[in-house]
Amino acid sequence: MPNPSRRRFLALAAAATAALAPRAKAQSGKRVTVALDWTPNTNHIGLFVAREKGFYGEAGLGVEILPYTDTAAGTLVANGVADFGILSTIGLCTQKAAGADLRGVFAVTRKETGRVVFDAGRNDIQRPRDLDGRTYGGFGSAWENALIDSIVRHDGGKGEFRTVTLGTSAYEALASGAVDFTLEVATWEGVEAELAGRRQRAFTYADYGVPDEHTTLIGSSDGYLAANGDATKAFLAATRRGQLFAAEHAAEAADILIAANGATPLDAELVRASLKTLNDGGYLKGPDGAVGTFEPAKIEAMGRYLFEAGILLDADGKPLTAAPDFAAYYTNSFLAP
Questions:
Q1: pLDDT classification of 141: cutoffs 50, 70, 90
Q2: CATH no. for 114-208
Q3: CB 181 within 8 A of CB 117
Q4: Rounded-to-integer distance, Cα 233 and Cα 289, Å
Q5: Is residue 4 predicted with pLDDT exceeding 50?
Q6: Rounded Cα–Cα distance for residues 297 and 188 (Å)
């Protein structure tokens, strides 16, 4: 769920897989495709609710949620394999800085869901600078070390730690003590750990110099948006209805997500607990009632942070020498007020 860069470019394979995948129900109307960033989970609940409740059909759309592959959703969108995709803000910024045709159009989460986690019994870890000299269980993303380095340095440390790339097995390695710390999504892996009885403590990014962000978003390409403005507005309006439904009718929404993915069963207890965490924490719907819209200050602050940390690279893999115009990285113009 949180690790966008562990995928390689397999766009043709993804297209073939999508063509062969069974659809949950027949739909008519303009066909719209959406690529997931991970196997189905509560970050995707607005999509599944909108499809299963018929909101897309009412909008004149036939929406196909493509099966997850190890190709980054941003890569599929930028290459025209998918019309929309689930992205992270960091993934959007890093891919767009390198030249990908991407633009954020819908903020799924209102605020940061990621955090640094470690075993609650580690008395030798009390603050980020204590991570110096420890072993990090990572996921292979180019930005992870830079992110952790900046958090440790912000707390007065040197930012010197060992990294072993483990992917999702990082959580098992953390539980067994094979690594000292890792990153997790509090609203999914964090909930899963709590249900399993694993006691953890965490450092929140924003407490140590990392700006708050819309962790998860829906992106499209400028090419698609220019040619399909009306379809984009209809798709986002129906998706917003789905996400708002999930915020106001959590039990039914959880059942919808579980039932819609019967071929690859989800842990029902985890889905329900995760959705409760998302709703109770104000992740899907802001205190002002906002659903889907971006906060410009958050995009600008995170973009600036990534640039200053040297995380944004150009098409040749070299750090950008000038900050880009982050207003071109997203738009609220396709969402009704």
A1: confident
A2: 3.40.190.10
A3: yes
A4: 19
A5: no
A6: 26
How many CA atoms within 13 Å lie on the side-chain side of 333?
11
- CATH number 3.40.630.30 given to 4-111+214-329: no
Instruction: Return the CA Rg of the chain.
Output: 19
Listed in order, strand segments (DSSP E) in the chain are 30-35, 61-66, 84-88, 103-107, 114-119, 135-138, 162-165, 181-185, 200-204, 216-220
Return phi, psi of residue 106, to 5°: -155, 120
Report the share of the chain in percent with pLDDT over 90: 85
Check pLDDT > 70 for residue 22.
Answer: no
pLDDT at 54: 98
One-letter amino acid identity for 63? V
CB 82 within 8 A of CB 66: yes
Q: How confident is the model at residue 28 (pLDDT cuts 50, 70, 90)?
A: low
Residue 145 near residue 163, CB atoms below 8 Å: yes
Tell me which H or E stretch contains 171: helix 170-176
The pLDDT > 70 percentage for the chain reads 92
Closest CA to 217 of 4, 11, 7, 14: 4
Residues 6+ away with beta carbon under 8 Å from 135: 161, 162, 163, 164, 178, 179, 180, 181
Q: Please, which residues have CB within 8 angstroms of residue 234's CB and are 6 or more apart in sequence?
A: 59, 60, 61
Task: Judge if 4-111+214-329 and 114-208 fold alike in CATH terms.
Answer: yes
**CA max distance for the chain:** 59
197-215 average pLDDT score: 95
